[in-house]
Design goal:
- By secondary structure, the chain is of the alpha+beta class.
- It has 2 domains: 17-264, CorA soluble domain-like (Beta Polymerase, domain 2); 276-297 and 304-331, no CATH class.
- It has helices at residues 34-38, 56-64, 70-77, 131-143, 150-182, 188-221, 229-295, 310-331, and strands at 17-23, 29-31, 47-52, 84-87, 92-98, 111-117, 121-126.
- Strands 2-1-3-7-6-5-4 form a 7-stranded mixed β-sheet.
- The longest helix has 67 residues, at 229-295.
Length: 335
């Protein structure tokens, strides 16, 4: 059975194979099929097999021909994909998540990649399409600028998954900068709604970033023997980058809260100013309303009923009251 061509969409074969290759130790690799996978010997170079975990043939091959124990294969393919790193019977397993770059997909809905390595072979498995393995495979088979060993491939897969997050965090930062500028305009109400969605995306992404930092820390604390000091430095750099991503996400979340508080303060200030103006207007017209209300009662003995100049006299008195009120308000610095 032929392995899938790198030029076609990464759809799995019925037995779960997405692609496979043997590294030549010089940055290149040749694509292989199932027959060559079964006949592979360590002397040929490092073997990389990329599988679809949802296919029934995947677990069977891992246990029958891949050499993994049923316990290790079960852990490798289990539904729970919380980021973690642990030692299997024959190799190390890293379960990490990468940015979802599939069309019409939420980028925060991260895709799990399972990686197993024993220093000579690398098995990877995913359920939804993830571009990092395909990119590295293309660099190996077409450009000959890929990893030279299984250990380097193991570390490069981890590093590429972590590096991908920089792009979305940069986008988040730029988006928050735009919302911060809009918050200073009359569009603050719309920005407030956007901030609520923004914080939800940041919290969802952080939910995966935090355990990945812990997973990489565990790998560095108990590194496999086949992981050289140079490759440990690469993993250490990836762990540091993941820590920076976590700090940046925390910073973005805190900034969004500050911006929301600023918007709330601006809205409260506007409301208070409006209420103050209304209160001043009400205070000005309250005595005038009292005078007009008092003169409007229909009882006998109202002064000026028979005087034709009474209306103008009343208006003059009300003007005097108005001037006196304005003078008092200015004196008390209410205006």
């Amino acid at each position: 059975m032929q392995a899938q061509s790198q030029d076609t969409p990464p759809q799995p074969q019925k037995d779960g194979l997405l692609f496979a290759c043997i590294l030549n130790g010089k940055g290149g690799a040749r694509e292989v099929d199932w027959a060559e996978i079964e006949a592979w010997q360590p002397s040929e170079g490092a073997l990389w097999v990329h599988l679809d975990r949802s296919q029934k043939g995947t677990k069977k091959w891992l246990t029958d021909s891949g050499g993994l124990s049923k316990t290790t294969a079960g852990a490798f393919l289990e539904e729970e994909s919380r980021p973690r790193v642990f030692r299997g019977k024959k190799g190390y397993i890293a379960i990490l998540r990468g940015i979802n770059q599939n069309p019409d997909a939420e980028r925060e809905d991260m895709v799990a990649l399972r990686i197993w390595c024993d220093g000579e072979r690398v098995f990877t498995a995913r359920q939804r399409q993830l571009f990092v393995p395909r990119q590295i495979f293309t660099a190996l088979t077409k450009e000959a600028v890929g990893p030279t060993s299984a250990a380097e491939l193991f570390c490069l897969l981890i590093d590429r998954l972590i590096r991908q997050m920089s792009e979305i965090i940069t986008e988040y930062s730029e988006s928050l900068d735009e919302m911060e500028l809009l918050a200073e305009t009359d569009q603050s109400s719309a920005v407030s709604r956007k901030l609520a969605d923004f914080r939800g995306h940041v919290v969802e992404l952080r939910r995966y970033v935090a355990p990945q930092r812990e997973a990489l820390a565990h790998l560095l604390a108990e590194p496999p023997a086949w992981l050289s000091e140079d490759l440990r430095s690469l993993v250490r750099e990836s762990a540091d980058r993941q820590q920076r991503h976590l700090e940046e996400l925390d910073s973005l979340r805190e900034r969004s809260i500050v911006i929301k508080d600023d918007i709330a303060n601006m809205l409260n200030e506007v409301m208070n100013r409006n209420m103050y103006v209304i209160s001043i207007i009400a205070a000005i017209f309250l005595p005038l309303s009292f005078v007009t209300g008092l003169l409007g009662i229909n009882v006998g003995g109202m002064p000026g009923v028979d005087n034709t100049a009474a209306f103008w006299i009343t208006c003059a008195i009300m003007v005097v009251i108005l001037v006196a009120q304005i003078w008092l308000f200015r004196k008390f610095k209410w205006l």
